[in-house]
Write a structure and sequence with these properties.
The structure is a single chain. With 127 residues, this protein is an all-beta fold. Helix content is 0%, strand content 50%. It contains no helices and eleven strands. Strands 2, 4, 5, 6, 9, 10 and 11 form a seven-stranded mixed beta sheet that branches. Strands 1-3-8-7 form a four-stranded antiparallel beta sheet, with no helix packed on it. The model has no long low-confidence stretch (mean pLDDT 96).
């Protein structure tokens, strides 16, 4: 398994931007699709965005389209989530997760397809 560590969370105001990073350890990072999930208090964990092993395919949840951008650098074993125009409803703990995949362009849409998880980073957006 790949080990994942998130960073970049914090407290911001509505309309601000924030960039989350997910750093991976292990030589097999390129074999993993990486997803960002989030969990707000009292709610289930939801998918935010996914990037394929190749980095050329991405998936976004509807409410994130146009505001969030996921990217990866396989040479540096990192995945980033650029979040713009943040809203109070974006407040949550954000997790990155790795899903081992045999397909370069696949973006796993289901939580059960991910077997490596980071510890999460808190994002709080004030109104």
């Amino acid at each position: 398994q790949v080990q994942l560590v998130e960073s970049g969370g914090g407290l911001v105001q509505a309309g601000d931007s924030l960039r989350l990073s997910c750093a991976a350890s292990g030589r097999s990072f390129g074999n993993y699709a990486i997803g960002w999930f989030r969990q707000a208090p009292g709610k289930e964990r939801d998918i935010v965005a996914v990037i394929s092993r190749s980095g050329t395919s991405t998936y976004y949840a509807n409410s994130m389209k146009g505001r969030f951008t996921i990217s990866r650098d396989n040479a540096k074993n990192t995945v980033s989530l650029q979040m713009n125009s943040l809203k109070p409803e974006d407040t949550a703990v954000y997790y990155c997760a790795g899903g081992l995949s045999g397909r370069l362009y696949y973006t796993p849409p289901n939580e059960y397809e991910y077997d490596s998880w980071g510890q999460g980073t808190q994002v709080t957006v004030s109104s």
